[in-house]
Amino acid sequence: MNLLTRYMLKQQLIMMVFVTLGLLCVIWLSQSLRFVEMIVNRGLSISVFLQLTSLLLPSFLTIIIPIALFFVIVFSYNKLIQDRELIIMRAAGLSQWALAKPALIVALLSTAVCYFLTLFYLPYSYTQFKELQFSIRNDFSSVLLQEGSFTDLDGLTVYVREVGRDNELLGILVHDARDPDAQTTMMAKHGALVRTDEGPRIVLLDGNRQEVNADDGTMSILYFDRYAVDIAQGVVEEGLRYQDARERSVYNLLTGIPPDIIERDLNTFRAEGHDRLISPLNAIAFSSIALAVLVSSSFSRRGQTGRLLFAIGFMVLCQATGIAMKNLAAKNPALVPLMYMNALIPIALGLYWTFRGPVIKARRATTQEAEA
User: Fold this and answer.
1) CA angle 358, 364, 368 (to 5 degrees)
2) Predicted model pTM
3) C-alpha atoms less than 13 angstroms from C-alpha of 178 in its C-beta half-sphere
4) CA neighbours within 13 Å on the CB side: how many for 290?
5) What secondary structure does DSSP assign to 308-345, as a single string?
6) Which residues in 230-260 are b (16+ Cβ under 10 Å) and which e?
7) pLDDT digits (tens, 9 = 90+) for 256-270
8) Based on the number of CB atoms within 10 Å of its own CB, is 355 exposed (0-12), middle (13-18) or buried (19 or more)?
9) pLDDT tens by residue, 176-199
10) Among 257, 247, 251, 316, which Cα is nearest to 277's?
């Protein structure tokens, strides 16, 4: 690795770290806003808050890193063009490979980090998040029941109009959809949240329970003076709990079969598994787009605004298409190859244009001179 390559690589790595941390802080702030009210009004500790929000960050890093890398490459090479440094490097005899080499090294390092996140750390961190969420639900259930808002507790939706003195709950609505075939809705004038050996329960006083028959559509209403709803109902021992897609390994997502994976979730889980294998490649794809637009282009006194906008637009299009392909593949598994094509085609086209573009332009210029 020559001195110039080390210089460019160092600059891009430093910028990559700062841009990634900046975007990560923005994401962290946006995600933590929904937990701030729990700290101020519900007594959630700062340590639990930090742990809960930090466990969500790895799932965003796989999206942030390729985008941050794209803008780092665009900024660094655009600055080289504006300062005429790229022209000097080419005049000194540096090839396209020598100019693109630092960016490609950073892209490969970013891809390796993304693969570590998607294959290993993401399932671990999200599993820890779900376990901590379950702990909060059982030990700090009063934190979750926010006054004047609907709270979703994995199939159990709870609304509390007001929290009175001694944690008395006023104006309670509970919709229990944990059993899709027997969904019920309960309303009560008041009640309380109590803790038992089996977990927290909401005790409803002076209310009614409504249930619709799925076969004939008739509704039955039961009026009660006292009724208890188990919040922890349906939760089984650790290791037997039905895991979300982000909690599972790629191997399990791609090979799991019923009853390990519910039949209706098979296609969604398969799409998630393929996306874990594809999303890290966006680091190489986005860097290839930036290199194709900037490194292969010649200097223009009018600036690089048009080329930069084209590169940004193409990157956004690839990102949006990747999300759309994942959603479509979750409904139709036959579309999974399109997910791979969406990542591989920009890489192939970008690298080809980066290394072959100047050669084609030189040939055209020679041809035009000969014709003249």
Assistant:
1) 145
2) 0.72
3) 16
4) 27
5) HHHHHHHHHHHHHHHHHHHHHHHH-GGGHHHHHHHHHH
6) bbbbebeeeeeeebebbbbbbebbeebeeee
7) 888 888 888 999 999
8) middle
9) 888 877 889 999 998 988 877 666
10) 251
